[in-house]
């Protein structure tokens, strides 16, 4: 396949993944707000798209997808505070996952990313409220991050496995 | 490519177990005596939990706090995500309600400090 087509395919897939990530983060908002004791925090379901992009496209594209998703989601919900939370969570989890990617299995990368996502959100909550008692939320946040990260990693392994046979754009 | 390794499950289970342990430990803390209300990192009120009362926090937004039956909770707020309301009632030392948009937190503080204060007053 000519390389120009390959670049175009990567470009289109990146755009598609932004759309998927955006929808997933809206679903995340709906699902997460039903959790009574941990409001304001997210499960990180949109991480499915981020994790997939990280393995299939690379760090550069994933960074663009992640930031675009956060900005668009903030525009759609209209809550500026949520932008800080989602950007911090998205960027820290991406950094952690990119560092671990070639060292440990995908499920572990995803679990670490999920925890990092929630820790970043706790850190933002701490800076916004200037109250150390926010640390009270750390255990349930680690718990949720690990559990959702586990299933997201599993789901993403399945998706990647299905995509590999028709692969013509991954690195 | 194998979908999942045994070590993946062990790793996740270990993290979950550790989090549960620490969480369970904080949840068994003794019942607190006062609700410390902070706005932008400054203490603005300390409500005794043994007296039923209603307290309104006015910052960028408004949170209405209610103390009832030794528990404190947010009954009403005009902040955009209403998350503090969903956090429910807290009563044990260390438990905290956070309202990020209003930069407000409510923390239950331990019984012993309150007791000493009550005597020295």
Characterize the structure shown.
Chain A has one domain: Arp2/3 complex 21 kDa subunit ARPC3 (Orthogonal Bundle). Chain A has six helices and no strands. Chain A has helices at residues 3-32, 47-56, 59-77, 80-100, 106-129, 138-163. The mean pLDDT of chain A is 85. The longest helix of chain B has 22 residues, at 6-27. In chain B, strands 2-1-7-6 form a four-stranded antiparallel β-sheet. Chain B has a three-stranded antiparallel β-sheet with strand order 3-4-5. Chain B has one domain: N-utilization substance G protein NusG, insert domain (mini-chromosome maintenance (MCM) complex, domain 2, Sandwich), CATH 2.60.320. Chain B is built from three helices and seven strands, in the order H-E-E-E-E-E-H-E-E-H. Chain B is of the alpha+beta class and 121 residues long. Classes of the chains: A mainly alpha (171), B alpha+beta (121). Chain A binds chain B through residues 33, 36-40, 78-79, 81-82, 85, 105, 107-108, 111, 115, 124-125, 128-131, 133-134, 136-140, 142-143, 146-147, 149-150, 153-154, 157-158, 160-161, 164, and chain B through 1, 3-5, 7-8, 11-12, 15-16, 18-20, 22-23, 26, 38, 40-41, 80-84, 86-88, 94-96, 98-101, 103-105, 107.
Quickly list its features.
heterodimer, A: 171 residues, mainly alpha, Arp2/3 complex 21 kDa subunit ARPC3, globular, B: 121 residues, alpha+beta, 3 helices, 36% strand
Lay out the secondary structure:
The complex is a heterodimer of chains A (171) and B (121).
Chain A: H1 3-32, H2 47-56, H3 59-77, H4 80-100, H5 106-129, H6 138-163
Helix pairs in contact in A: 1-2, 1-3, 2-3, 2-4, 2-6, 3-4, 4-5, 5-6
Chain B: H1 6-27, E1 34-39, E2 42-48, E3 53-58, E4 62-68, E5 71-77, H2 83-86, E6 96-99, E7 104-109, H3 111-120
Antiparallel strand pairs in B: 1-2, 1-7, 3-4, 4-5, 6-7
